[in-house]
Each structure stands twice: as C-alpha cells, then as structure tokens.
Amino acid sequence: MLETVPPSLAETRRQWLRRALAALPLTLAGCVASSTSVLGVSARRSRAQWEYHNRFLASGARLRFRSHSAHGRPWTSSMEQTYRAHRRDPRIGYVVKNLATGRYLAEFQADRLFVGGSMPKPAVAAVLLEKRRGNLTREEFQNIVYACDQSINASWFYLLARITPEDERNFEWKYNLPNVEIINNWQSPRFYAEFYERCVNYRLDYGCELLLEAMRRDQYGLGRWVMPASITYIGGKTGNYGEWDHESLFFYHRGTPYAIVLYTRGNFAPGNQLGCMMGGLFRDYCA
C-alpha cells in the first residue's frame, strides 16, 4: 500500500529539498577545500558569482549606483609638482601593489598605523560575511551596500554591532592579513593592499563579488579623476576624520590588477593633494 503524505508535510519536504539544492554548489566546494584560496581563480570567481546571485540578489537587497570608469582628466605640471614635493612627506604612508604577482612596486611607511576614518567599512563588512558564512539577511546585505558605496555611518555602526574582536582576529588569521585593529579603526597601507588582493583574486570564502561590486560604486575619491579613461574596472574606499584623510583604489590597467593605498595624517590634504598623490603613484609605478 502506498504511503499517503499529508500536503503540509509534502510541502515541508519540498522546501527542505529546494534549500538543500540551493546550498549544493557551496557545499561541494567546501568538500573540495576548506577555503577558496586553494582553488583556481576561475573557480573562485564562479563560486563567488554564484553566491552573489543566489544569496545577495536573492535576498532582495540591491546595489544603488552604477559602477563607473576612471575619468581621464589632464595631468598638469602643478599636479606633478605637488606629487614630487610630498612623496616622502613624513605625514603619509602608501603602497602600490601588483595584485597579479603579489609584488610591491612602491611603499613608504607601509606598516604605520593610521586612524582610518571610513576606510575600514568594507573590511568590517567582510568580517561579518565571514562570521555568517555569507548567510545574511536582506537588511544586513543592504547595510553593506550603504556602508561601501555612499559611506553611510549609520550602516557602519549597524555592521559593527554584529561582530566582535574575536571575529576580527579569526578573519585576519584565516586570510593571513596584517594584524591591525579593524573594529577600533587603526589600519596600515599594507593591510588595505592585502585586503584588496584577497578581494580581487577572490580569495575570501564569502562575499567577494558583493564587496567588489559595492566598492566599484563608491561615490567619493579623487584618484579616479586623474587616471586614464581606458580604466573601466576601478573601485575603492576613502576615509576622512579630523586630521586624517585617506584614499585607496583597486583597478585593472592593460589587463593587470593593481592597488594603490594612501593614508595621511596631520591635515595633509586641504586641497587636491590626495588626487595628485594617487595620480603620481599611478604614473610612476603602473602606467
């Protein structure tokens, strides 16, 4: 005699099966390796894009702005002079890194700690994504977008309330990142260059595609204005608070990914000094 399954129980079983099938690609990837770092770049990207569509977009959260290219404004002699005058200023620290080879092309006070202003917002989002294994609510996903693309402080505080110093330590240890204080807002140029490398090469287990796309929609920054308009894949984060003013970018130039990270203190940048420094570092080490 065939078993008759009550409709409510049958629906419960179908729901369970749908959830299991939806999780299957990530589960299988986890069986192959405990971290995406041992997979090839193409496989890591595919995994991250699957997660982006089936977790972030499926949640109902959405990115608010379009990604945009570098703007290609003319590089003037005045900008060049500002860059040359300040590239060894004791108030700043910077790195330029080839994200394909891992080679540092330039660094100055790269491990000095600076108050980050809004700089740590994407890293805070990454810690939460790691803690939850990518399973966030629609509200949490949307606050990641708000924190990264328009640097809304309320969304930053919302994310901070959901992570602990232990979560931060586990994140830095797992991804071999410099030991800085993400939550307490102390970072170094090297930390953010390494963080961008993990994102661009899809080495984070959770949220890479979301973080990249959110940072590509960042509404602020001066460096992208003076880089060639041929650079169509570019993103980053800025930060300012009191005497602290910072800028950072990741981008592809002629098929090679780079990161430029610049931190400053002591009211270094009352004018366009950040744009001049970013453009000068690009021309010296990436162009």
CATH topology-level fold name: Beta-lactamase
At the first level of CATH, the class is: Alpha Beta
Number of helices: 10
Structural class: alpha+beta
Percent strand = 5-15%
The major β-sheet equals: 5 strands, antiparallel
Provide the domain count. 1
Low-confidence stretches: 1-34
DSSP summary, beta strand count: 7
Textual characterization of the structure:
This protein is of the alpha+beta class and 287 residues long. It has one domain (7-285): 3-Layer(aba) Sandwich (Beta-lactamase), CATH 3.40.710.10. It is built from 10 helices and 7 strands. The chain has helices at 7-32, 41-56, 77-86, 121-131, 138-149, 153-160, 165-174, 189-200, 208-216, 273-285; strands at residues 92-98, 104-108, 114-115, 186-187, 234-241, 244-253, 256-264. Strands 2-1-7-6-5 form a 5-stranded antiparallel beta sheet, with helices on both faces. Strands 3-4 form a two-stranded antiparallel sheet. Helix 1 runs antiparallel to helix 2, helix 3 packs across helix 10 (273-285) and helix 5 (138-149) packs across helix 9. It is globular, with a radius of gyration of 21 Å. Residues 1-34 have low confidence and may be disordered.
